[in-house]
Specification:
Elements (H helix, E strand, L loop, with lengths): L1 H29 L3 H6 L5 H11 L5 H14 L12 H35 L5 H14 L3 H15 L12 H8 L1 H27 L2 H8 L4 H31 L1 H7 L4 H11 L2 H29 L7
Helix pairs in contact: 1-14, 5-9, 5-11, 5-14, 6-9, 7-9, 9-11, 10-11, 11-14, 12-13, 13-14
Length: 312
């Protein structure tokens, strides 16, 4: 196990190096000269040259790449151009609100998706199964903007069950007051595709020989579903969950924007609107790191779920 983890960590090094070079090239060659962005339209050549000297963009590209690498290793990407706030403080303060919404959303989505998939897969072709699949298809065709507007208007504005938007300083208040409506909307949007996907995973296992053998031996149907079938269907489910976790931080920007949640997704949108390159580069690098780490965790969970899996 330890040898496998060390080997995977070593394999992350060239992958991360490729990400660093790609991000550097995109922001230094394609992104344009940041000095022009910071100086404004009325700046003269002297001001632009001074900004380039402060940013280090007047140095040769190998030197700039070395500076960028040092920022990654020290976790210090400098200050945001738009606000002057340290980028590390921005990310640390924005991560909590994002996780307050995304962790409960992921847990609920996974638990409901698994439970409904196990129930529907063993009633394949029934009226309930067809009705739920039709509802999922309709739900997937509706934009998330429609869900946000309708839920905010009906549940928050008209019925007063939730605040329309806002965020506080207390985790308990945020989790019980401000987060439930965004979580509910995220669940309404994500549950349909998740259920269809998990149902296909369960169906692949439900027709296997070991299921028929278990039934012939008199194993209770509940145990067949929740032990035998779920254990074998768990590997693709783990893959799906772990692959989506890093993207959730960025993909929830609409929820964070409409509900005033000061999270990572909202910060990405603000950074793009302001052309705040240090923030964008830091988030890009950290998301790439998170993706590789979650892939490693997924491999470790495979063996925990199914001892037949051998890590090599």
């Amino acid at each position: 196990m330890l040898a496998f983890i060390l080997r995977r960590l070593w394999q992350m090094v060239p992958t991360m190096a490729g990400v660093v070079v790609l991000v550097f090239l995109l922001f230094n060659w394609i992104g344009g000269d940041p000095a022009f962005i910071l100086a404004g339209k009325m700046a003269d050549a002297g001001e632009i040259a001074n900004i380039r000297r402060q940013l280090g963009t007047d140095q040769p590209y190998p030197v700039q790449l070395w500076i960028f690498l040092g920022q990654i290793l020290s976790a210090d990407f400098g200050n945001a151009w738009s606000t002057g706030e340290p980028v590390s403080h921005i990310l640390a303060s924005r991560l909590g609100p994002s996780l307050t919404v995304l962790l409960p959303l992921t847990l609920l989505e996974t638990a409901l998706g698994i439970a409904l998939a196990l129930a529907l897969a063993f009633k394949r072709g029934s009226r309930i199964d067809r009705a739920v699949m039709l509802a999922c298809t309709v739900g997937m065709s509706v934009s998330i903007l429609v869900y946000i507007v309708v839920f905010q208007y009906v549940l928050a504005y008209k019925m007063g069950l939730f605040p329309v938007q806002g965020w506080g300083d207390s985790l308990g208040v945020n989790l019980l007051r401000y987060a439930p409506l965004p979580i509910l909307i995220g669940l309404a949007v994500s549950l349909a595709p998740t259920l269809r996907l998990y149902r296909s995973f369960v169906l692949d296992e439900a027709g296997q020989d070991y299921v028929r053998t278990a039934r012939a031996k008199g194993v209770p149907e509940r145990r067949i579903r929740w032990v035998h079938v779920l254990r074998n269907a768990a590997i693709p489910i783990i893959t799906h969950v772990m692959a989506n976790l890093p993207a959730l931080l960025i993909g929830a920007f609409l929820l964070e924007r409409f509900f005033g949640i000061p999270g990572i997704g909202r910060e990405v949108i603000l950074a793009v609107e302001r052309s705040d390159f240090p923030v964008i580069k830091a988030i890009t690098v950290y998301v790439a790191m998170a993706t590789m780490v979650f892939n490693l965790l997924a491999d470790l969970l495979y063996q925990a779920v199914d001892p037949r899996v051998r890590l090599a």
